[in-house]
């Protein structure tokens, strides 16, 4: 009954080789987020989509891009992964932003860069 | 600069002990949420606090939002090994459609 599904759970890529992480949701939520979480740290927001409206955080590197082709799917593209990009990538959704719209997280994709 | 600071960063206690985790900021938040994250999983929402001074209880967990809506605390009574995890506070500021900002996290280990 998973509602936010991330694939794959584990991804290994080579330094500089483009990689795409995927997220799908069955909640029909308006908002989808991508967070980066490094070991023992808090999740760091990379960007979010409110419907088709893309919102990039000011300190998100250009190396990270995102696509949301429809309500259910959102992709994170890392154009040229570096060793420092190794992390857990969490996708989350919410009905809208605001008090009454908690985030629903997927179980994440752990990215290793060799 | 971390917008939301949590303390302590790490806490290891024995089963049955009480503990308090703090989440502090110099900014005002329209709401604060607390999440718990277990290894290999995404964070799961525990509670949302909205009103300054608000107190919410969830079984052995008590959450409080500061009067000025700049800080929050989580108190656990008689901790159990199942409480082990990373506790994250997350706040939304009064600036329209901004997404949540997470605190630095408190990693709790409850020893049986």
What would you say this structure looks like, in words?
The complex is a heterodimer of chains A (114) and B (112). Chain A is 0% helix and 51% strand. Chain A has no helices and 11 strands. Chain A has strands at 4-7, 10-13, 19-25, 31-37, 44-50, 53-56, 64-67, 73-78, 87-94, 104-105, 109-113. Chain B is mainly β and 112 residues long. Helices cover 0% and strands 54% of the residues of chain B. Chain B has strands at residues 5-7, 10-14, 19-24, 29-37, 44-49, 55-58, 61-65, 71-76, 85-93, 101-102, 106-111. In chain B, the strands form 2 sheets. In chain B, strands 2, 4, 5, 9, 10 and 11 form a 6-stranded mixed sheet that branches. In chain B, strands 1-3-8-7-6 form a 5-stranded antiparallel sheet, with no helix packed on it. The interface between A and B is medium-sized, with 26 and 26 residues.
Main sheet properties of chain A = 7 strands, mixed
Structural classification of chain A? mainly beta
The amount of beta strand of chain B, in percent, is over 45%
Q: Label the overall shape of chain A.
A: globular
Rg calculated over all Cα atoms of chain A: 13 Å
What are the low-pLDDT stretches of chain A, counting only 5+ consecutive residues below 50? none
**Which assembly state applies to the chains in this document?**
heterodimer
Structural class of chain B, by secondary structure, is mainly beta
Termini gap of chain B: 36 Å
What form of chain B results from the Cα inertia axes?
A: globular
- Per DSSP, the total helix count of chain A is 0
Helix content of chain A: under 10%
Please summarize the sheet with the most strands of chain B.
6 strands, mixed
Whole-angstrom Rg of chain B:
13 Å
Distance between the termini of chain A: 34 Å
**Mean of residue pLDDT values of chain A:** 93
What is the string of SSEs of chain A from the N terminus onward? EEEEEEEEEEE
Order of helices and strands of chain B: EEEEEEEEEEE
Average pLDDT number of chain B: 91
Content of β-strand of chain A: over 45%
């Amino acid at each position: 009954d998973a509602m936010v599904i991330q694939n794959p759970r584990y991804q290994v890529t080579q330094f500089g080789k483009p990689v795409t992480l995927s997220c799908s949701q069955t909640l029909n939520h308006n908002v989808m987020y991508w967070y980066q979480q490094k070991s023992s740290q808090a999740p760091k927001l990379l960007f979010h989509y409110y419907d088709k409206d893309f919102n990039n955080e000011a300190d998100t590197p250009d190396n990270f891009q995102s696509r949301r082709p429809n309500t259910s799917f959102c992709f994170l593209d890392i154009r040229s992964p570096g060793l420092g990009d190794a992390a857990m990538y969490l996708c989350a959704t919410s009905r809208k932003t605001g008090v009454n719209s908690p985030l629903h997280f997927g179980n994440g994709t752990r990215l290793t860069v060799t | 600069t971390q917008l939301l600071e949590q303390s302590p960063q790490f806490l290891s206690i024995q089963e049955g002990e009480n503990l308090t985790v703090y989440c502090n900021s110099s900014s005002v938040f329209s709401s604060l949420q607390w999440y718990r994250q277990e290894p290999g999983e995404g964070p799961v929402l525990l509670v949302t606090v909205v009103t300054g001074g608000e107190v919410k209880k969830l079984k052995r967990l008590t959450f409080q939002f500061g009067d000025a809506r700049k800080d929050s605390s989580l108190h656990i009574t008689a901790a159990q090994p199942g409480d082990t995890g990373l506790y994250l506070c997350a706040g939304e500021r009064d600036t329209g459609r901004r997404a949540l900002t997470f605190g630095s996290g408190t990693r709790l280990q409850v020893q049986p």
